[in-house]
Write a structure and sequence with these properties.
Length: about 220
């Protein structure tokens, strides 16, 4: 295996899993939401595997007002020199990747006001929740690592629910709490369906870009 692609959620990975179709040289790992889950999952995987490059992939919330749904981003400060993927910078360009700065948060940024505050405090272009932990483990092991993310919600967009309040202790979604929240606010159903449409589009865009990066 040359490349390990890490995703927090199976929904983020599903289109890429379909495209990759078990092709040799590329593995997919669902690490869970947040730093703690990501670190634990990656350490367990690396106990029996030695990838040449780890990509921390998935959704990101926009902090820069210039970013749109489906924009593909990578962190140029992290760009590694690796033989696992020849001509990596050219492949990033072919995948439509834009250079950006990420902030790794401990909670989901659910409102435009929260995103605006994070932008002012960090100067980051986008926010996600796993990459810092994944990079730390890779640095410890001497493994090349790069953040590659797709914008799933923009800076001026409020999410329909506070998903932090609907999370289990491991930060995964508690579907019982979600069902209760929807039952209490049925007017949110349309917004939730729209969010599902947007995240599905973002996941497809991510899969197409990853294919250009990881496959010959």
């Amino acid at each position: 295996m040359s490349v390990l692609t890490c995703f927090a959620l199976k929904e983020e990975a599903a289109p890429f899993r379909k495209i990759s179709g078990g092709k040799p040289g590329v593995a997919i790992l669902i690490v869970g939401i947040g730093r703690r889950s990501a670190e634990k999952s990656l350490r367990e995987f690396l106990g029996a595997n030695a990838p040449g490059l780890v990509l921390t992939c998935g959704f990101a919330g926009g902090l820069s007002p210039d970013l749109q749904l489906g924009d593909m981003l990578f962190e140029p400060a992290e760009l590694p020199a690796t033989s696992a993927v020849p001509d990596l910078p050219a492949r990033l360009a072919a995948g439509g990747m834009k250079p950006a700065r990420f902030f790794c948060a401990d909670r989901i940024a659910t409102t435009a006001a929260e995103k605006k505050k994070l932008r002012a405090e960090t100067g980051a272009d986008a926010v996600e929740m796993e990459s810092a932990a994944i990079h730390a483990v890779c640095r410890e092991r001497g493994i090349a690592c790069l953040t590659v993310r797709v914008i799933s919600d923009t800076a001026d967009e409020d999410l329909p629910l506070d998903f932090n309040a609907l999370a289990k202790p491991d930060q995964s979604l508690d579907f019982g709490k979600l069902a209760w929240a929807v039952a209490r606010s049925p007017g949110k159903i349309g917004a939730l369906l729209e969010l599902q449409r947007k995240t599905s589009l973002a996941a497809r865009r991510l899969a197409e870009a990853l294919a250009k990066i990881t496959f010959p």
